[in-house]
């Protein structure tokens, strides 16, 4: 009875975790299907989910990690419980004291039933049972798979050796197959329903020494392995996953690359066209290049605006895959390498125009989602969009290399000119920060500070050397907009996210009628 309680207590916790995962996968697959049927339901359903579940869906990676931690914890409990059980089985098999455990271990083989104790002789070891039983062998396999997936998902491995993380994480297929057949070995036993009438535990457990007595009303109990249950909990998400993979494969075809641009600091811009492609600001896509890897798909933020007749991405060389992709396009312009695109997928940046005041912070190539937003603003002013709710945008771009500002230099120059012509110079307040420079260049910039345009970018806004003083920036914004809601959006490192999140909390007023800062971070 103790074994049953230990194992089923784990099962209840484990199934709760998987139930939560199933719900998330269902919502994720449903949203993917919704995008495929956008001509019928897009604005209604997407609007509903973004308004009710936006914050939850934007933290899908955190939820994914939480489920992973829960699986690891419950796996450890499950393994420890079974090891204790097997050790107890071993002692019961070797016992000769006539105890209940020893009698149950020595019950004679019944027709259609196997031994209750998996250790069938005193010479059988626990290790032998583990590696010769279905439950034990599959348990070892899925545990090794889980360890590999968890260790390769560490941030250091994921950032430095992404390919190792990517391929190792796909061992989940082996994990799920092993999990589905793990219970077929029937290592957890239960008394049969027929036997419960002849030997009920509450009535007959104390009279185990009289089970063989023909005059006793308690007959020897019969047991059987409990049926496998795990497949029921992985079947639904498995079907949804297969459906989503088929849908993503279908959507990734028929992409035409219309323009290739090489920018400074090893940044590649791809402009593409795809039939039926529809996007919003700040969204991202998954890109696959079969000539480099048939399986790897990497996320890239769209840098084009929804108003444009193409969609574009900017790719910086930060790893083996991106370096190989850039090298491939540098060496082959005819024919252009074939790529596959899946998406677009939503992010927190979609909500930027829901705020009256927006603060956009991009670090390095993290400026890409805000390039899409700034382009969309340019088009909205061109077409006099009266539905634009946003009154003010603060844009901060922090770069380590001077050449990085050239990526969207023309865009910022166009926005400067457009704001002047429309008399809305104060709508966009942008600041560029250079964190890597030498003393000679800084001195040269100081000598030319009085010139109309910045000597580094050619823009009217001067480039700052160093990092922003966030306390000063937030204090100024809070003073300028004392009664408005300010949305803060970041695409950058975690250290910067902690600083901005802290400032949002610190400078938000306790009075809900006054200035409130809401922090939003891009997650891929």
Automatic annotation (TrEMBL):
<keyword id="KW-0325">Glycoprotein</keyword>
<keyword id="KW-0521">NADP</keyword>
<keyword id="KW-0408">Iron</keyword>
<dbReference type="InterPro" id="IPR017938">
    <property type="entry name" value="Riboflavin_synthase-like_b-brl"/>
</dbReference>
<dbReference type="Pfam" id="PF01794">
    <property type="entry name" value="Ferric_reduct"/>
</dbReference>
<keyword id="KW-0851">Voltage-gated channel</keyword>
<protein>
    <recommendedName>
        <fullName>NADPH oxidase 2</fullName>
    </recommendedName>
</protein>
<keyword id="KW-0812">Transmembrane</keyword>
<keyword id="KW-1133">Transmembrane helix</keyword>
<dbReference type="GO" id="GO:0034702">
    <property type="term" value="C:monoatomic ion channel complex"/>
</dbReference>
<feature type="transmembrane region" description="Helical">
    <location>
        <begin position="126"/>
        <end position="150"/>
    </location>
</feature>
<keyword id="KW-1003">Cell membrane</keyword>
<dbReference type="InterPro" id="IPR050369">
    <property type="entry name" value="RBOH/FRE"/>
</dbReference>
<keyword id="KW-0479">Metal-binding</keyword>
<dbReference type="InterPro" id="IPR013121">
    <property type="entry name" value="Fe_red_NAD-bd_6"/>
</dbReference>
<feature type="transmembrane region" description="Helical">
    <location>
        <begin position="171"/>
        <end position="190"/>
    </location>
</feature>
<keyword id="KW-0274">FAD</keyword>
<keyword id="KW-0285">Flavoprotein</keyword>
<keyword id="KW-0472">Membrane</keyword>
<feature type="domain" description="FAD-binding FR-type">
    <location>
        <begin position="247"/>
        <end position="351"/>
    </location>
</feature>
<dbReference type="InterPro" id="IPR039261">
    <property type="entry name" value="FNR_nucleotide-bd"/>
</dbReference>
<dbReference type="GO" id="GO:0046872">
    <property type="term" value="F:metal ion binding"/>
</dbReference>
<dbReference type="Pfam" id="PF08030">
    <property type="entry name" value="NAD_binding_6"/>
</dbReference>
<keyword id="KW-0349">Heme</keyword>
<keyword id="KW-0560">Oxidoreductase</keyword>
<keyword id="KW-1017">Isopeptide bond</keyword>
<dbReference type="GO" id="GO:0034220">
    <property type="term" value="P:monoatomic ion transmembrane transport"/>
</dbReference>
<keyword id="KW-0813">Transport</keyword>
<dbReference type="InterPro" id="IPR013112">
    <property type="entry name" value="FAD-bd_8"/>
</dbReference>
<comment type="function">
    <text>Catalytic subunit of the phagocyte NADPH oxidase complex that mediates the transfer of electrons from cytosolic NADPH to O2 to produce the superoxide anion (O2(-)). In the activated complex, electrons are first transferred from NADPH to flavin adenine dinucleotide (FAD) and subsequently transferred via two heme molecules to molecular oxygen, producing superoxide through an outer-sphere reaction.</text>
</comment>
<dbReference type="InterPro" id="IPR000778">
    <property type="entry name" value="Cyt_b245_heavy_chain"/>
</dbReference>
<dbReference type="GO" id="GO:0043020">
    <property type="term" value="C:NADPH oxidase complex"/>
</dbReference>
<dbReference type="InterPro" id="IPR013130">
    <property type="entry name" value="Fe3_Rdtase_TM_dom"/>
</dbReference>
<dbReference type="GO" id="GO:0006952">
    <property type="term" value="P:defense response"/>
</dbReference>
<dbReference type="Pfam" id="PF08022">
    <property type="entry name" value="FAD_binding_8"/>
</dbReference>
<dbReference type="InterPro" id="IPR017927">
    <property type="entry name" value="FAD-bd_FR_type"/>
</dbReference>
<feature type="transmembrane region" description="Helical">
    <location>
        <begin position="12"/>
        <end position="33"/>
    </location>
</feature>
<keyword id="KW-0406">Ion transport</keyword>
<keyword id="KW-0249">Electron transport</keyword>
<keyword id="KW-0407">Ion channel</keyword>
<dbReference type="GO" id="GO:0016175">
    <property type="term" value="F:superoxide-generating NAD(P)H oxidase activity"/>
</dbReference>
<dbReference type="GO" id="GO:0042554">
    <property type="term" value="P:superoxide anion generation"/>
</dbReference>
């Amino acid at each position: 009875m103790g074994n049953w309680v230990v194992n089923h207590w784990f099962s209840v916790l484990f199934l709760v975790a998987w139930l939560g995962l199933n719900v998330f996968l269902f919502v994720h697959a449903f949203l993917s299907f919704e995008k495929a049927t956008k001509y019928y339901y897009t604005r209604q359903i997407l609007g509903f989910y973004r308004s009710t579940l936006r914050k939850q869906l934007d933290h899908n990676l955190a939820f994914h990690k939480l489920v992973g931690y829960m699986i690891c914890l419950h796996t450890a409990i499950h393994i420890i419980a079974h090891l204790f059980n097997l050790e107890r089985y071993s002692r019961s098999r070797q016992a000769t004291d006539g105890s209940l455990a020893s009698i149950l271990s020595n019950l004679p083989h019944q027709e259609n039933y196997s031994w209750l104790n998996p250790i069938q002789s005193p010479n059988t070891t626990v290790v032998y049972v583990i590696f010769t039983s279905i439950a034990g062998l599959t348990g070892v396999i899925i545990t090794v798979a889980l360890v590999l997936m968890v260790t390769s998902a560490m941030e250091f491995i994921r950032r430095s050796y992404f390919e190792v993380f990517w391929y190792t994480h796909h061992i989940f297929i082996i994990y799920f197959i092993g999990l589905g057949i793990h219970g077929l070995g029937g290592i957890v036993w239960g008394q049969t329903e027929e036997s419960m009438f002849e030997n009920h535990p509450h009535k007959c457990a104390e009279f185990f020494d009289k089970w063989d007595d023909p005059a006793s009303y308690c007959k020897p109990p019969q047991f059987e392995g409990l049926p496998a249950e795990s497949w029921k909990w992985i079947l639904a998400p498995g079907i949804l996953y297969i459906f989503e993979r088929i849908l993503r494969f279908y959507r990734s075809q028929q992409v035409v690359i219309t323009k290739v641009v090489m920018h400074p600091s090893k940044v590649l811009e791809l402009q593409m066209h795809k039939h039926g492609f529809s996007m919003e600001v700040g969204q991202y896509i998954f890109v696959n290049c079969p000539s480099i890897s048939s399986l790897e798909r990497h996320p890239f933020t769209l840098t084009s605006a929804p108003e444009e007749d193409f969609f574009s991405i900017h790719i910086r060389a930060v790893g083996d895959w991106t370096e190989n992709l850039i090298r491939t396009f540098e060496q082959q312009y005819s024919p252009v390498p074939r790529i596959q695109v899946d998406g677009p997928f939503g992010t927190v940046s979609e909500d930027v125009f829901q705020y009256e005041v927006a603060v956009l912070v991009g670090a390095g190539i993290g400026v890409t989602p805000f390039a899409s937003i700034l382009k969309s603003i340019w088009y909205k002013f061109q077409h006099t969009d009266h539905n634009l709710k946003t009154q003010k945008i603060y844009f901060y771009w922090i770069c380590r290399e001077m050449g990085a500002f050239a990526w969207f230099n023309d865009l910022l120059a166009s926005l400067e000119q457009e704001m002047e012509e429309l008399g809305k110079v104060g709508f966009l307040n942008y600041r560029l920060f250079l964190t890597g420079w030498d003393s000679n260049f800084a001195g040269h910039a100081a000598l030319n500070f009085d010139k109309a345009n910045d000597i580094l970018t050619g823009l009217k806004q001067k480039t700052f050397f160093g990092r922003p003083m966030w306390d000063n920036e937030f204090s100024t914004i809070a003073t300028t907009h004392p009664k408005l809601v300010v949305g803060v959006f970041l695409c950058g490192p975690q250290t910067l996210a902690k600083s901005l999140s802290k400032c949002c909390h610190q400078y938000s007023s306790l009075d809900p009628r006054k200035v409130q800062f809401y922090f939003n971070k891009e997650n891929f």
